[in-house]
Amino acid sequence: MAETKPKIAQLDPVWERVREEALEAIRAEPLLGGLVHSSLLHHPTLERALAYRFSLKLASGEMSEQILRETADEAYASDPEIGQAARADLVAVFDRDPACHRYLQPILFFKGFQAVQAYRIGNWLWRQGRHDMAYFVQMRVSEVFGVDIHPAARIGRGIMIDHAHSIVIGETAVVGDNVSMLHSVTLGGTGKEDGDRHPKIGNGVLIGAGAKVLGNIRVGECSRIAAGSVVLTDVPRCTTVAGIPARVVGEAGCSQPSVSMDHLHIGEDRATGR
């Protein structure tokens, strides 16, 4: 009888690579065997592994691991896009973070990746009308990872948040695909106004450490925001802005700044050759 080949839909090269790396990690450091088995090798899919990590990290005396894991499993089963976004995020971190050498690192050790995956569960809860449970997830992500993302915010796939400490993303913020940001970034409002009050970040944008983007403004795709900048007005696509308040100081410098992760901005002197 001929051997049955797996269907293409059943193939998951990202998950297979994670499992291969997990086996190698145990060979290199046997003391991590329990962690690696329980977090990765014990699970048949990436979604199940992420649900386990979500429940393990966010459980507390107020909410058990079992409830959180059942909630995450339900989210992944109900909306396959959550798992696909996780894969895109994982590849993004591996490609863009020079400190990431294996796919398993973000799942086990990087709080930026883990916080974004937990946000995705919270966002699913929010979209189901389960707002209080979504708020609980937001609270625990803030307490555990130091990352505060409102569950109603809309975030695309291929997101890389490096270091991730003190990230704040407000309720009506929108973050496109393939966006990279560093620690202490704020996508916030400008006061007590209600309604649509947070930034809209285009695809492929790079946001430097400590940058504050405030108000219902738009940051054009493939732009760069220099570290420490305070952005209060719209940013044209494919440009670099810097300063307090931020102003355009040159072109973006490359076609995909969020992928190249080049934080050197093009100042007026460099742009004009003077």
TrEMBL record:
Serine acetyltransferase N-terminal domain span: 14-118
Enzyme Commission code(s) on record: 2.3.1.30
UniProtKB keywords: Acyltransferase, Amino-acid biosynthesis, Repeat, Transferase
Listed GO MF terms: serine O-acetyltransferase activity
Pathway given in the UniProt record: Amino-acid biosynthesis; L-cysteine biosynthesis; L-cysteine from L-serine: step 1/2
Keyword Transferase: yes
Catalysed conversion reaction: L-serine + acetyl-CoA = O-acetyl-L-serine + CoA
Record flagged with keyword Nuclease: no
Transmembrane segments: none
SMART domains given in the database record: SATase_N
Cross-referenced InterPro entries: Hexapep, Hexapep_transf_CS, LbH_SAT, Ser_AcTrfase_N, Ser_AcTrfase_N_sf, Ser_O-AcTrfase, Serine_acetyltransferase, Trimer_LpxA-like_sf
A GO cellular-component term linked to this record: cytoplasm
BP GO terms, sorted: cysteine biosynthetic process from serine
PROSITE patterns: HEXAPEP_TRANSFERASES
Family to which the UniProt record says this protein belongs: Belongs to the transferase hexapeptide repeat family.
Protein name: Serine acetyltransferase
Species lineage: Bacteria, Pseudomonadati, Pseudomonadota, Alphaproteobacteria, Rhodobacterales
